[in-house]
Structures are given as structure tokens and as C-alpha cells.
Design goal:
This protein folds into two domains: about 220 residues, Glycogen Phosphorylase B (Rossmann fold, 3-Layer(aba) Sandwich); about 130 residues, 3-Layer(aba) Sandwich (Rossmann fold). Strand 6, helix 6 and strand 7 form a beta-alpha-beta unit. Helix 1 packs across helix 7, helix 7 crosses helix 11 and helix 9 packs parallel to helix 14. With about 375 residues, the chain is of the alpha/beta class. The protein starts with 14 loop residues before the first strand and ends with a helix. About 45% of the residues are buried. The protein contains 15 helices and 13 strands. The structure holds uridine-diphosphate-N-acetylglucosamine (UD1). Uridine-diphosphate-N-acetylglucosamine binds next to helix 1, helix 5 and helix 10.
Length: about 375
């Protein structure tokens, strides 16, 4: 084996790919692309985990269920302030990727791990592809928005899930040759795993329920806001029981604010596995969330969703799907829920290319790009000889 590649364990195949992941939604997206690329014998690929998410239920269980093995490398950065976490990933990632020198690094979504890896690749001239490019909330107060804008500026190839993303990239001056509309890789994995969800329903779940997830700093870091949100949920739970898997950040903020994770008709639980969460999403009558990916999954599953944020980077889930952005006004949440109870239910439509084949399209583009590069280097060799 080439000594340079030995650290990452990438062999001497003609196309060497490194997937960089760090947080829950990354694992789901990378699983689809990893599987699509594994169909090709010229590809040698490895997964590098930054360690941004590290709890068993936030990380290990995903790799087990998604059947993509364990990451070949873990940077073990753990938690920290956003800047510290990003800086730690940059410092630890550079020597590893320099030694392995893959042909392409693939980064996913909008988490700190995504932008950190992108910055390193741009500094040492390793080609970078961004999966789920072009999404914009146009709200720079969100750390994820900064991560998206920067990663897209740095990427050599940008894979988008929907037309709006292509328009956003064009407005930011990104040339269309770099951009490929492929569809939604998160939905690829959902389609593959949905049959297993029938056997993964968590115990003691009521027949009919509202599913809630909240973890954004804007929703959980302010104690008063968090307390009022929980009161609103308590009131809603009188109409329909609530199931609420709590993100570690939210649990920590509740503890610090002296807010109890209790309520007769609110079923609080620790973070659950990917497949069990799919089972809940599929069965929920209504979902209330501030997540990005859940807005997309509920659109695909045709389950109504109220998004507790001022904006969304996934507007197609509103224009075509089941999502309603209710803002950070709790009276609007209560009003939207009342409409739902009165029978006004959005079923929406599934956006184009959310068909389970997005990752195959990505694999095809990467193979084509690689073919072009091989040809270019042969031509260069011939020119330098003559
Ligand atoms: C991150 C992403 C967010 C994504 C979310 C999915 C960024 C900026 N944010 O947010 O876009 O929607 O992942 O879950 O990258 N913690 C644990 N155990 C873990 C991981 C986290 O206890 O395994 C706790 C720590 O206290 C940590 C806090 O959760 O400080 C926040 O984790 P972090 O990775 O910084 O961001 P998330 O809120 O998970």
C-alpha cells in the first residue's frame, strides 16, 4: 500500500474518497453516498468521524443501524464552543487528510465539522464536494448558515437537493458547471430503512401522539423562552399526548434552568436510534420541531410539521410539502395546532428527485469527474514529453 495513504487506509484504487462526518444528520446522508459508491470496484473509500457527536445514542447506534461499518478514523474532538470545536477539527484533520491525500473529500450538510473540513481541503488543495449544497435560511444569526455559505464557496463540486438551492448558488456567483441537482440523500436512506421501522417502535408509546424535538440554541438556550415553550407543549398535551426525545443540549439547558422533564401526558425520553425515530415520525399525527432534516422527512412521510423557527433553509418543504414555519411566537404555535385539531391537515407532495436515487447520481458525477481528470493528466504527460 502507498505509504501516504496508509493512515486513512485508502488503498491504491484509481478513485480515493474520504467522507467526513461529525453529527447525527451527517451519518444518515453519508450512509447513502457510501453505499452507492461501494457498488464500484475502482473506488476506495473511508469514513472519518470528527467526534463532534460522541454519545452512543448520538453516534455509534447510527453506524450500526445504517450498516456502513465503523468510521476508519475518529478525531475525537468532542464538545466545545462553536469556534473551539471548529478550530480543533481543523487542527486534527489537516495532518490526517494530508497523509491520506484522497482524490475527493465529501462533506455533508451544515454542521461545524462540514465547514472545518472544507477549510482544510481548500488550504491544501484537496478537491472538495459538498452534499446538500445551496440551502439558505438567509439568517446569519444561525451558525449553520455561515457553515453553508462558506462551504459552498470552497467546494469544487456542489450537490443540491432542490431547484431553490441551485438558484441560491447562482446568486452567490457559483458557476453552474460545479453544481449538480441530484435530489435528497437523506430521503435515500429513509426509503431504505423504512421497512425496519415497523419493528423498532419504542415501548410505551401512545396510539396517537404529537412528536416534538427541539435543540437549536435559539429555542433552548434562553431559560424563559424554554420554560414558556414547555408550558405551551404541556397545554397541547391535554389534547394529544406528546412524545419528546430530548437532545443532550436541551436536557442540559432544562436542568440548568430548573425545568423538569416531566408531565403526565408528555413522554420524555433520551435520544433514540435512527430507525426508532423513523418509526415515531411515521406514526405521529403532528410533528413540532426546530430540526432541518425532520422538516424534509415529514414532507416525504406526509406527516404535518410545525417548525418552531423564524425561517427555513428548506422552503420546498413549505411550498410543496407538509411544513409550516410558525416562527418564535408561541401563540402562533397554539393557533397552528388548533387548526390541526380542527382537521386542517396538510398532506403536500413529494419534491422532484426525492426518489431514493440521489446518491447514485452523486456517484455517477464523481466517476465522470474522475474520468475527466485522468484524461487531463494523461494529456499533460504527453504534452510535457513532446
Ligand atoms: C449540531 C449541529 C446542528 C444539527 C445537530 C444535530 C452545528 C453548528 N450544529 O448541533 O446543525 O442540527 O448537530 O443533532 O454543528 N452533546 C452531548 N453528546 C453528544 C453531542 C452533543 O452531550 O454526543 C451535547 C454537548 O453538551 C454539546 C451540545 O450537546 O455541547 C451541543 O452539541 P453540538 O455538536 O455542539 O451541537 P448540536 O446542538 O448537537
Amino acid at each position: 500500500m502507498d505509504r501516504k495513504n496508509s493512515e486513512l487506509g485508502l488503498g491504491n484504487s484509481s478513485l480515493k474518497i474520504l467522507h467526513v462526518v461529525g453529527a447525527r444528520p451527517n451519518f444518515v446522508k453519508a450512509a447513502a453516498v457510501f453505499r452507492a459508491l461501494s457498488q464500484n470496484s475502482v473506488v476506495d473509500q473511508a469514513i472519518l468521524h470528527t467526534g463532534q457527536h460522541y454519545d452512543v445514542n448520538m453516534s455509534d447506534v447510527f453506524f450500526e443501524q445504517l450498516d456502513i461499518g465503523t468510521p476508519r478514523f475518529n478525531l475525537g474532538v468532542g464538545s466545545g464552543s462553536p469556534a473551539q470545536q471548529t478550530a480543533d477539527i481543523i487542527k486534527r484533520f489537516e495532518p490526517v487528510v494530508s497523509a491520506g491525500h484522497p482524490d475527493w473529500v465529501l462533506v455533508y450538510g451544515d454542521v461545524n465539522s462540514t465547514v472545518a473540513a472544507a477549510l482544510v481541503c481548500s488550504k491544501i488543495a484537496i478537491r472538495l464536494a459538498h452534499v446538500e449544497a445551496g440551502l439558505r435560511s438567509f439568517d446569519r444569526r444561525m451558525p449553520e448558515e455561515i457553515n453553508r455559505v462558506l462551504t459552498d464557496q470552497l467546494a469544487d463540486l456542489l450537490f443540491t437537493p432542490s431547484e431553490d438551492a441551485n438558484r441560491n448558488l447562482a446568486c452567490e456567483g457559483i458557476t453552474s458547471e460545479r453544481v449538480h441537482l441530484v435530489g435528497n440523500v437523506m430521503i435515500d436512506t429513509l426509503i431504505r430503512m423504512l421497512p425496519q421501522a415497523a419493528f423498532a417502535i419504542p415501548a410505551d408509546i401512545p396510539e396517537n401522539f404529537i412528536l416534538v424535538t427541539l435543540h437549536r440554541p435559539s429555542n433552548v438556550d434562553d431559560a424563559d423562552w424554554l420554560s414558556n415553550t414547555l408550558k405551551t407543549l404541556l397545554a397541547l398535551s391535554q389534547r394529544l399526548p406528546i412524545v419528546f426525545p430530548i437532545h443532550p443540549r436541551t436536557r442540559e439547558r432544562m436542568r440548568a434552568a430548573g425545568l423538569e422533564a416531566s408531565g403526565e401526558r408528555i413522554h420524555f425520553m433520551n435520544p433514540i436510534s435512527y430507525v426508532s425515530f423513523l418509526a415515531l415520525e411515521q406514526r405521529a399525527k403532528l410533528v413540532i420541531t426546530d430540526s432541518g432534516g425532520i422538516q424534509e422527512e415529514t414532507t416525504f412521510l406526509r406527516v404535518p410539521c410545525l417548525t418552531l423557527r423564524e425561517n427555513t433553509e428548506r422552503p420546498i418543504t413549505v411550498s410543496m410539502g407538509t411544513n409550516e414555519v410558525v416562527g418564535r411566537d408561541l401563540s402562533k404555535v397554539a393557533a397552528a395546532a388548533s387548526e390541526f385539531f380542527s382537521g386542517k391537515v396538510r398532506r403536500g407532495q413529494i419534491p422532484p428527485l426525492w426518489d431514493g436515487h440521489a446518491a447514485e447520481r452523486i456517484a455517477a458525477v464523481l466517476r465522470r469527474e474522475h474520468g475527466k481528470q485522468v484524461l487531463e493528466s494523461i494529456l499533460q504527460c504527453q504534452t510535457s514529453r513532446t
